[in-house]
Amino acid sequence: MDDLVHAKSPPSASLVNLDSATATPSFSQTQTMVHDEMSVFVAAQRGDVAALRQLIESGSASATDRDEQNVTPLHWAAINAHIAACRYLLEQGADVDARGGDLVATPMQWAARNGYLYILHLLIAHGADPTIADSQGYNTLHLVTHSSSIMPLLYLLHQPISVDSRDAQGHTALMWAAYQGDALSVDLLLRHGANANLKDEAGLTPLHWAVVRGNKVCIRRLVEKGGDVAAKDAEERTPRDMAVELKSLGAWKRALEEGGMNEHGVKRAKPLSDRNTKIAIFVLPTVFFYLIFMTLSVLPWYTGVLLAMAEFFGMHHIVTRVLLNKNTYTDSVSQTPYFAGIITASLIWVVYAWVTRLLHQAESHPFSHLMFALVVGLCAYNFFRAITLDPGTCPKPASDDELKQIIEDLASEGRLNGQTFCIQFTALGSGIVWAPETTGNSFCSLRPSLSASGSSTSAAATDRDEQNVTPLHWAAINAHIAACRYLLEQGADVDARGGDLVATPMQWAARNGYLYIIHLLIAHGADPTVADSQGYNTLHLVTHSSSIMPLLYLLHQPISVDSRDAQGHTALMWAAYQGDALSVDLLLRHGANANLKDEAGLTPLHWAVVRGNKVCIRRLVEKGGDVAAKDAEERTPRDMAVELKSLGAWKRALEEGGMNEHGVKRAKPLSDRNTKIAIFVLPTVFFYLIFMTLSVLPWYTGVLLAMAEFFGMHHIVTRVLLNKNTYTDSVSQTPYFAGIITASLIWVVYAWVTRLLHQAESHPFSHLMFALVVGLCAYNFFRAITLDPGTCPKPASDDERERGAPERPDVLYPVLRSSRYFRDFNSWILREPCGCDSGFARPRRVSSSSLISCH
Known about the structure:
Pfam families: Ank (PF00023), Ank_2 (PF12796). The protein is 49% helix and 0% strand. By secondary structure, it is an all-alpha fold. It has a domain at 672-765. The protein is globular, with a radius of gyration of 31 Å.
């Protein structure tokens, strides 16, 4: 690839200057200003609404003022995510589409670069135009795509802006997402009508750019949505030709193979359609179980058993090797109704055997048959109820207008995030995986004039430009891993400091969360404890980026989890302030102190209250955060919540954690573990009472009393044991339904052994068949509920975890493949396994905000 097409422009001196903090395209996560006295621009940058009001109402400033960089106060408030300041400035007449700074950008474009959803929503609500382009030709949709922020992208796709709008070089948002390897954004853009075959000025399609990154999920999704595998660029290269040239043909082949195609993009023939395949898999066990039981009834047991086993394995072979042939079908067995079909077949033949063989054999025991019918009916009902409790998808809105209204309502309420809105990703596989070895070329090509052959050169790997920045800095900030590797081989200083922030290459990469650049630099001896001129070390900067995998990797490097910046803030304080619940949880698991104070006396719990994120508040309190800690002004976190008018979030956070608003734990009737044991055992006890009631009383009173007992059991579980004031799990997160099915199976077997077995001694085959079917039913039920425990295996020790992290950061932990775990933002993120016994540990999804100034 040549440099005909440019990406986010390389950072310049103005982009990292504290004294002239202009809007930056790719580097600066923070925008700060240094002035001797308070001005309207400093107040806007700090989000100080009181100071803004004083300055504007006194007449010493206005909302339309511009500084020496031609930037308005609204720009500074927008880039620092101060929504209250933005709202006040707009009320005072600020120009919502004012252009300023070196890039001649609007406030909304400054906010879009960092993916500030609610700033975008506020500005658009006040008439901001998302189609305006800056001096680089990027409109708001391009810039949000650059940020890889999925929720802002979703919001913009329902605004009046073309999904196929182009930048100055003809790139669409889809091309950018494909180049960045952002499979979730690629999928979302395609769902909203993005054209997979448009070409930029160099003749490159989104599929070409996906090949450049080497992300097989993006490649597969584009081809599935009609991307032309034969499209040629200006140099007559197809995407496959480019894959050969970039030595990523393996990723190309795997991507198409997982999509049921050969390497030329031709779909392989399937024996059945996807829908009919699933129907066949569900029905097949019923047919084969009939053959198995007929075999056992006709042949002697010593040959019948062997032949029945052969038939069973033949059924399994048909399902896994013929119907689910990996060359034509991409789902695994656990993603099909195979196990559900086996359990259903077992139930069918249990009922068939009872009706045809046993019912007329024991006419003198009507209660036994009634009990058997009830138990089998409950077993069947609870089985089908259990498998439909979590379908793995969210209900789809009836129309695009309804969807748009839902998104608008959630954005207005400040709740448009992964916890309230499911973006279902259909290009499944092993998950979104970055491709660190295939990033040698990019939109913005770094082409240092270095020669490995020893010929004359005009530059060296240690050269510095007029900003005192080395080539390694530029390669690191643009995520060019091949260029970084080459520069390091040529003697580049891995800890060279440069730029106005006096930062190292690793710190430049950390600001954007580039995991593999960080891994490469640390492997070459980079020091993660080095701080820049603002006092931020690599751990702080990765936390600012809200990138969970780089944070997980750094927590296994030699750097203190409680290291402080120049103002005494720890990484935990930053994560809490950003509302990044996943980072907060990860830092606490790795020993971060929840009670350290910064220079202002604020603890992480104070900063979580500032953001108002109840998940962060709850997690900090659960991990020992002091609810009575006071800052320099003698304010506790609760006092601050009252002051910031977020007492409701504070109360809800503690209530969900089983505490009152003062942080005192409410007494529980049982411990969490014993509660779950009681919930699992209770149905067995109550089913005994129900059946005894039915056997003693007449049916017309027994049925009513039995129903009352059943609802009594349900009340005890849902209102006493799972009292919302003391226990936070829902019913579906407990073993309640598993206990009901288990109780049903227990009493089926009990009734058979005590009432039916001796009634039909002349029919041994019927009892054998019954035992086999019930055994299969029980086995497959317990097998089904243990297939996906909801957690990843926990490493045996911290040493084992640390040994795994430095060598292969791309395989730190396996990806959950169940469709129930939809993925968050531009990657699927897993909570680190905790080894707890609290049921399904689903990955949490939280909206991530970039760093803004504290003072």
